[in-house]
Amino acid sequence: MLEHLKGNGQEFINEVATIGRIHHFHIVRLLGFCSEGTRRALVYEFMPNGSLEKFIFSKTNSSSHRQLSWEKLKKIAFGVARGVEYLHQGCNQRILHFDIKPHNILLDHNFQPKISDFGLAKLCSKDISIVSLTAARGTAGYIAPELFSRNFGEVSYKSDVYSYGMMLLEMVGCRKNKDPAVEIQSQIYFPEWIYNRMRQGQELCLEFEEDGDEGIARKLAIVALWCIQWNPTERPSMPIVLQMLEADLQSLEIPPMPFVSSDVETGAIN
């Protein structure tokens, strides 16, 4: 159900008409819609395993008690990346989602991921790389810096890349990226904690059950850290993200520090 929509509903109809033409394995299928007065709804295919967030943010879940194997997490990461790539490259018009997060990744009976919830999506021409927005859109914790201030760069499809990277880190850490409830101060902001450990060549201190699990975790983390670079021009496009996910771990370089460190004199994470 969609609420707080403005205007006469024409934008809603245009969006439905566009999204209704999208056919991709990793994007949830739109079955129908309702537009009656102020009541508007979208009807999607049923996804029996619900959303990704319940598997990585469960109260019984932690980095030492995972409901999803690393192999499944890798497949989910690939699937979401392919879905976002299609939105950016595979349609007549580029579709910017602006709300990529675990809550909006639905899982079918085989745990194949499908991107859902296009309520904040914006359509734009492939010829135009910079998007004009009057206000930031998205969910706190996943919104790219340039959506708050143009000092960080221009808004573009790279904003979705940032959100994807933050989601990827939450999959790796099996927790919210910023969690004040964490007892160890240095681990409150997970992106910085994992960046420092990888830069120093330390173990990730995550739970691994099978040979190769740590390699998967390191690869996902490196890709994520590239995706969350504050400067949009330094983030990879989704085709490059897919190449990195398919590459050998040894061929991937750890990126520069993606954010302002909490070790600076202000003591704040910006």
Automatic annotation (TrEMBL):
Compartment annotation: Membrane
Ranges where the Protein kinase domain occurs: 1-260
Molecular function terms from GO: ATP binding; protein serine/threonine kinase activity
UniProt cross-references to Pfam families, sorted A to Z: Pkinase (PF00069)
Keywords: ATP-binding, Glycoprotein, Kinase, Membrane, Nucleotide-binding, Serine/threonine-protein kinase, Signal, Transferase, Transmembrane, Transmembrane helix
InterPro entries the UniProt entry points to: Kinase-like_dom_sf, LRK10/LRL21-25-like, Prot_kinase_dom, Ser/Thr_kinase_AS
Membrane topology: Single-pass type I membrane protein
Domain of life: Eukaryota
PROSITE patterns in the cross-refs: PROTEIN_KINASE_DOM, PROTEIN_KINASE_ST
GO cellular component, one term: membrane
Residue ranges of coiled coil: none
PANTHER family assigned to the protein according to its UniProt record, in alphabetical order: RUST RESISTANCE KINASE LR10-RELATED
Name recorded for this polypeptide: Protein kinase domain-containing protein
Species: Citrus clementina
Lineage of producing organism: Eukaryota, Viridiplantae, Streptophyta, Embryophyta, Tracheophyta
